[in-house]
Amino acid sequence: MHESTGPKLRTALSLVAAAVLAGCSFIPTHERPAAPVADAYPSLGSNAGTQATAPALAWTSFVGDAHLRELIALALANNRDLRVATLNIEQVRAQYQIRRADQLPSLGLAASGNRQPDGNGGISSTYSAGLALSSWEIDFFGRIASLKEAALAQYLASEEAQRAAQTSLVAAVSSTWLSLQSSDDLLALTQRTLATREDSLRLTKLRFDNGATSALDLRQAESLTAAAQASFAQQQRQRALDLNALTLLVGQPIPAKLLEPSQPAASTGEGGTAMQPLLSDVPAGLPSDLLERRADIRQAEQQLIAANANIGAARAAFFPRISLTASAGTASSELSGLFKDGSWGFTLAPQALLPIFDAGRNRASLESARVGRDIAVAQYEKAVQTAFREVADALAGQATLGEQLRAQQVQATAEAERFRLAELRYRNGVASFLDVLDAQRSLFGTEQALVQTRLAQQQNQVALYRALGGGWSE
């Protein structure tokens, strides 16, 4: 009977040891919250039928202009905000490694000496040296493992935060560069308008000096010329601001050649073949695609997982905390006999501490962890809703800005012809100079609106790319 009991006892002890090493977990099962949005984006005009699943588009494929691609590459290498996001990953990774190391015992070399009265008028001395294991917590109830899981989720969240920062940086550089192109276009337009109005002012002044026109016509011409001069100064200031913003995003002085498109906006290649567009079209896909595409949504989900793991750690705090302190080495009452034969030995001091009264600290910690998880759920749902709204807004712009741009192009053509005819009628004495000035003012406003709408359409493409989570090409 004794022989059969031995193997059973060894088996039982092995199972206990395995359970101690494996531990248990009180982490609630993670379930991704249902997305609190519709199953499809609102259909508006030309974006109807864009609800099929679509793959993510890498930024190198989205950006067609070679100069802009080079500028984005410089920003990815030098932008300080992105550098901080990358360094945050390293910091959170180190925190995760600390939590993982807590699961293993820490050994060190220890030496100590103690001298105290022995109660008989003498002094007793004790000296020791050797290996020491200090308060290693045996994670039977998974407290440390839960903290490690939380740290791992925070590390993965920091990686997603960096990817979100990369996508935002690509979009910001693209949008600011497009704004700079628009400022250049408006500056050239204003310069041409100013030259035209200065010519008209000289002609009007000459006619006024010769009694061929009234003072009212002269003052109108002076007013329009001054307005063009003010607009020219404003556009110069706006271009400088755009350039400063772009320089900050790129993180270094920008080569002059990268400030201009690599090809004219409406040019074609040899044989009439159209060159690559400035920006590629982005397929919208389904709202469910956002859960996989958007780095900020994945970041929010990892933070939810971390909050879930914190609940496991808080639950485990209600159970005994088992720790082990041990040492092995040599001890002697005399320093000279510390390493002599017969002085070797060891100490082993296991301890189990079960909380009985802690003034509600553990219960409050558990409640705090649960509320933290509820907050993380709300933040996750808000991230999904924000993403849905951003995509819906961009799709609304995609459906309407193209039609608006076409209508304004027709209007600009008509205004240009109106100005030509008004000027011709004035020179032939059929119409008054006020008709010329009104046509000139209307043409300038229409051409400005055309440039601004074109910018809005291009920036809407960038906004849609960012809202859909973009894509990454290593």
TrEMBL record:
Residues 290-317 form a coiled coil. It is found in: Cell membrane. This is Multidrug efflux system outer membrane protein. It is a lipid-anchor. It comes from Hydrogenophaga palleronii. InterPro entries: MdtP/NodT-like, OMP_efflux. It holds the Pfam family OEP. Residues 260-279 are annotated as: Disordered. Keywords: Coiled coil, Lipoprotein, Membrane, Palmitate, Transmembrane, Transmembrane beta strand. Belongs to the outer membrane factor (OMF) (TC 1.B.17) family.
